[in-house]
């Protein structure tokens, strides 16, 4: 019975992430500011709608892992820590990589940004 509480909490988090993903994917008109990305206010985004859709997909993927993680923990509670560790390490690294790919594709950096980063 204790496992049902973890399932409910996990699914609430997954529903919130899914809601953010749907909002970013379908309804957001201003550029998304994701936690690990640079501020987009001073950079030119080539296609705001596609940029936001790409971020929405990231939230969908996170949500899917939480939906699965809740089920996994409910049926196999002794192995749920491995899923959590995998999600926390590989998931965070994959999100950093994915956000950088989004930025490379949709953000045009100014010369000042490139000089500040050490690339000319």
What characteristics describe this protein?
single chain; 120 residues; mainly alpha; two-stranded antiparallel ribbon; 4 helices; 3% strand; elongated; transmembrane
- Beta-strand fraction estimate: under 5%
Q: Give me the count of strands.
A: 2
Q: Average the pLDDT over all residues and give the rounded result.
A: 82
Distance between the termini: 59 Å
Q: What is the spatial order of strands in the main beta sheet?
A: 1-2
Rg calculated over all Cα atoms: 17 Å
Please estimate the helix content: over 70%
Query: How many DSSP helices?
Result: 4
Domains, number: 1
Q: Can you tell me the residue ranges where pLDDT is under 50 for at least 5 consecutive residues?
A: none
> What structural class do helix, strand and pairing data support?
mainly alpha
N-to-C SSE string, H for helix and E for strand: HEHHEH
Main sheet characteristics = 2 strands, antiparallel
Name the shape in a single word.
elongated
Transmembrane segments: 6-25, 58-75, 81-99
Protein name: DUF3784 domain-containing protein
Keywords: Membrane, Transmembrane, Transmembrane helix
Organism: Blautia argi
């Amino acid at each position: 019975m204790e496992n049902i509480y973890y399932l409910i909490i996990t699914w609430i988090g997954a529903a919130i992430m899914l809601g953010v993903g749907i909002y970013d994917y379908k309804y957001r008109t201003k550029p998304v500011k994701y936690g690990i990305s640079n501020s987009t206010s001073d950079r030119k985004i080539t296609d705001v709608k596609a940029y936001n859709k790409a971020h929405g997909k990231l939230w969908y993927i996170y949500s899917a892992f939480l939906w699965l993680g809740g089920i996994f923990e409910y049926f196999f509670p002794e192995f749920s820590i491995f899923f959590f560790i995998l999600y926390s390490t590989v998931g965070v690294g994959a999100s950093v990589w994915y956000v950088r790919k989004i930025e490379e594709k949709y953000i045009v950096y100014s010369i000042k940004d490139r000089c500040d980063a050490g690339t000319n």
